[in-house]
Amino acid sequence: MQQKDTKDKDVKDIPGSVQRGTEDALESAKQEVTRARVPWYRAIQRGEVLMIFDVIVLVLFGLLAWWVHIHPVLSVDVAITQEFQENQSVWLRDLMLAVSYPGTQYILQTALILVAAVIFWLFDMRLEALFIVGLSAISALLNLVIKLVVARPRPTPRLVDVIQIAQGLSFPSGHVMSYMALWGLLFSFGVILFRGHPWWRVALLVVSGLFVVLVGPSRIYLGDHWASDVLGAYLIGIVLICLALFLFLKLKELGVLAPRRSRHYMRHFRRIGES
Asked: CA–CA separation, 126 vs 55, rounded Å?
């Protein structure tokens, strides 16, 4: 009888053991991420360097948008797309479709944004989580506004092969802008916020970097966008990321949504700087 009671008690303790194990694993992961994080004052120095290029990139984007508005079809765009589409191998087509797939499925893209934000939130990086969601939302809204202003039509089967038919206007590429807002920001966080070579940082940089680099060629190859659409999206994406990082690092300097320990260190270093 006593042995049966002991077994029943062990069975009842299983959920509690699983919960404790999960909490211990999460706490261990938090400590590893904390050790890899770059001090806030060094991160600010890294982030502000990006702002030097922001005005130049914005001017270049404005000139490009004006040019494609006046000249919706450019011979150089047609030539680039035809060059991209010369290789019609199955593996390349499947790769380009796979790279573009998350951006085509809005529910999946939204889920990726929310998952990334939740992960950062769980690791006490709440300001980072809010910027992940906020930048994606702002990028989507800005993309819609620019498309309506420039009003450039998409490539047609008369000029190039349209492998994947898309609706709406063409400039700038919505896929590229959305990927820049999510994966570009994650790549930037991986560069300026963490140090060393832990596997998760390497994975973050490699995966996010590949998505950012490959999404542009995929949109051209599939015939959904002109090369100038892709270039414009990369340019305005860089502008948004630079502005977001500048604001993010300023808020981080003020300790907005920072853990209590981080706020203590920030006040300490401010007092040192003022003395």
From this structure: 29
pLDDT digits (tens, 9 = 90+) for 88-108: 889 999 999 999 999 888 899
How many Å apart are CA 37 and CA 28, to the nearest integer?
15
Angle at 170 between CA 239 and CA 159, to 5 degrees: 130
Q: Which two tokens stand for residue 87?
A: 């290789």
| Among 188, 181, 155, residue whose Cα is nearest residue 102 | 181
Counting as low any pLDDT under 50, the low residues of the chain are: 11, 40-41, 264-270, 272-275
Measured between its terminal Cα atoms, the distance across the chain in Å is 72
Please tell me the pTM assigned to this model.
Answer: 0.78
Rounded Cα gap, residues 127 and 243, in angstroms: 15
The structure tokens listed for 268 are: 């300490």
Q: Which two tokens stand for residue 207?
A: 């995966």
What DSSP line would sit under the chain, residue for residue? Answer: -HHHHHHHHHHHHHHHHHHHHHHHHHHHHHHHHHHHBPPHHHHHHHHHHHGGGHHHHHHHHHHHHHHHHH-SS-HHHHHHHHHHTT---HHHHHHHHHHHHHHH-HHHHHHHHHHHHHHHHHTT-HHHHHHHHHHHHHHHHHHHHHHHHH-PPPP-TTTS--SS---S--SS-HHHHHHIIIIIHHHHHHHHTB-S--HHHHHHHHHHHHHHHHHHHHHHHTTSS-HHHHHHHHHHHHHHHHHHHHHHHHHHHTTTT--HHHHHHHHHHHHHHH-
